[in-house]
Design goal:
304 residues, alpha/beta, eight-stranded mixed sheet, two-stranded antiparallel sheet, globular
Length: 304
């Protein structure tokens, strides 16, 4: 896949290529974006332990999508060839864990940031929203879905507190970032992830974002069993810091809701370092530092 021109259509072409080469992979759609784009999920594995990794909740953090796609290809190739994947027998892992990967949760916003969406009704609507926030570069500063709702401030875990904080910061209406929406799960993309999660029995989730090279692992004072231990493992294999979520960002995220709902390990991974959107030249190093986390989300949960 050509990352310099990353867009929804190219991602779907890449997924279809993987399905052709590795017929044991499965794809399903968990819902649709505002513009009607299917939000795809790849399934790898047949085990009873279910794990979910989601990426690109935020439009200008799209570089996290190819992290999951490249991992899917490496994992599938190892399964097909009977080889090890980063020191672990891939076929044995495949039989023990079912991994679900949602590489692009915010397809419309991503296409806006990457230039695939540059005209039409939705583009003009986003441009009008952006004009109300002249300090945020358009479209590079865009994190929200195409209607100006921040998808990682939509989940029913302290949503009211998030609303109070973000409104006080000046994000009380549709915005390129930090607008919580009219009510929890009002955005179809967030609701799709929520309903998909409810329909499964995930032992652990990862929510991929950029940037900061930080791993957030708690929601308020909740500490699910082994969550700190696994977070520290992630920190060791990636070199990322392990921290508690800052107060201003500590509510209504997917990781927050998952911990609150299930009392199981959930993590926000802030990959890479710099200013979003991170340059594609950073991708190889970002991926290298995250392979241990991507593997550990499955191997560590088997130790529970």
């Amino acid at each position: 896949m050509e990352l310099s021109t990353f867009r929804y259509d190219s991602m779907m072409e890449e997924i279809n290529r993987l399905l052709l080469f590795y017929p044991f992979l499965e794809k399903t759609g968990i819902g649709n974006s505002v513009m009607g784009k299917e939000i795809p999920v790849l399934r790898i594995g047949s085990g009873t332990q279910e794990v979910f990794y989601g990426a690109a909740f935020h439009a200008n953090e799209w570089i996290t999508a190819p992290i999951l796609l490249q991992f899917a290809e490496e994992y599938a190739e190892a399964v097909a060839s009977g080889m090890e994947l980063y020191g672990t027998d891939a076929r044995s892992l495949y039989q023990q864990v079912t991994l679900y990967l949602a590489p692009l949760i915010n397809p419309d916003g991503t296409d806006l940031v990457t230039g695939a969406l540059a005209s039409g009704m939705y583009y003009e609507g986003a441009k009008q929203i952006g004009a109300s926030y002249p300090s945020i570069p358009f479209p590079d500063g865009w994190k929200a879905n195409i209607e100006g709702v921040d998808l990682n401030l939509q989940f029913p875990a302290g949503w009211e507190m998030a609303r109070e904080i973000k409104f006080a910061q000046g994000y009380g209406m549709p915005a390129p970032r930090d607008y919580v929406g009219e009510f929890p799960l009002s955005a179809p993309e967030s609701r799709a992830v929520y309903e998909f999660t409810l329909a499964h029995d995930f032992s652990l989730i990862l929510a991929y974002h950029t940037q900061g090279e930080v791993i957030y692992w708690k929601y308020k004072d909740l500490e699910p069993a082994r969550s700190r231990e696994i977070a520290e493992y992630f920190g060791r294999v990636s070199g990322y810091a392990v921290e508690e979520t800052p107060y201003a960002s500590g509510n209504a995220g997917y990781k927050d809701w998952f911990i609150l709902q299930y009392d199981r390990p959930g993590y926000t991974i802030e990959a890479g370092y710099g200013e979003n959107p991170l340059p594609i030249e950073d991708f190889p190093e970002i991926y290298r530092r995250n392979t241990g986390i991507l593997m550990g989300g499955m191997t560590e949960i088997l130790k529970s």
